[in-house]
Amino acid sequence: MEIHNSAIVSKKAKIEKDVVIGPYTVVADNVVIGAGTKIGAHCVIEGNTTIGKNCQLFTGAVIGSQPQDLKYKGERSFLNIGDGNIIREYCTFNPGTGDGGKTIVGSNNLFMAYSHVAHDCLVGSGCVIANNGTLAGHVTIEDKAVVGGIVAIHQFVRVGKLSIIGGCSKVVQDIPPFSTCDGHPTLVYGLNLIGLRRQNVSRESIKQLDQTFRLMFNSGMSIKHSIVEIKKQFPRPVEEVMYLLDFAQMSERGLSRSCRAKSQ
Of 26, 80, 163, 228, which is most buried, counting CB atoms within 10 Å of its CB? Predict the structure, then answer.
């Protein structure tokens, strides 16, 4: 363990081997920090916060401070952060709201400077949240999603896996998996072809996804009716199409509209 002599670290905190804690950082009582994690200068880690192995926290990150939620009355809630996350300068992560509430962050994510993860969020693994990306309470970000800079995501929105949201977007409805979205409010522009290819998704799956997107977002049909038509055309859909259909049917806030729908 390497703890700078100006850092304030509670004796009640559980800190594993090879942890590095920089100057003027504060670590409170109930914090757990996994092996190999490096914490920069002027960070504050408090609350019932667990940080996994081999994470990197840069200057000024504030992790585990009480949620910015007027309903919060001091209940015991939690923030769990997985392994291999990079949390850049001045990021803020809050725990859940309500007794036993949790904010959960997976592994191997990149949170760029000033990004915010609010109470009761669920962030998967392999995601990128760019500078000033803001997740309101109860937001879900699925695996390998990319959220552009200065993007604001409304409460209870779900961002599908392998999707990408362009910078400065306003997200008020669910973002379909595998999609490229942008705008104010956010609209669907098509497939995230680069992301799909990087993940070695087969040509057949990409082709079927492309046809599915055309029916779901560009045909003029409602989402409900497009799903019926997609199931007729693909009685044995590939895994990715099945995932997209399930996502659409489970959507509580509704899916973001097509950019073409706006121009019609």
Answer: 163
Assign 1 a pLDDT band (cuts: 50, 70, 90): confident
SS (H, E, C) the chain: CEECCCCEECCCCEECCCCEECCCCEECCCCEECCCCEECCCCEECCEEEECCCCEECCCCEECCCCCCCCCCCCCCEEEECCCCEECCCCEECCCCCCCCEEEECCCCEECCCCEECCCCEECCCCEECCCCEECCCCEECCCCEECCCCEECCCCEECCCCEECCCCEECCEECCCEEEEECCEEEEEECHHHHHHCCCCHHHHHHHHHHHHHHHCCCCCHHHHHHHHHHHCCCCCHHHHHHHHHHHHCCCCECCEHHHHHC
Over range 214-227, report the average pLDDT.
93
pLDDT tens digits, 236-246? 999 999 999 99
Predicted structure pTM score: 0.96
Strands 186-191 and 179-183, bridge-based pairing: antiparallel
Indicate the residue among 114, 141, 168 that finishes a domain.
141
Domain count for the chain, please give it.
2
Residues in the chain: 264
Neighbours of 164 (CB within 10 A): 21
Q: What is the pLDDT of residues 158-177, one digit of tens each?
A: 999 999 999 999 999 999 99
Domain that holds residue 23: 2-141
Question: Among 141, 158, 186, where does a domain finish?
Answer: 141
As a whole number, the mean pLDDT across the chain is 96
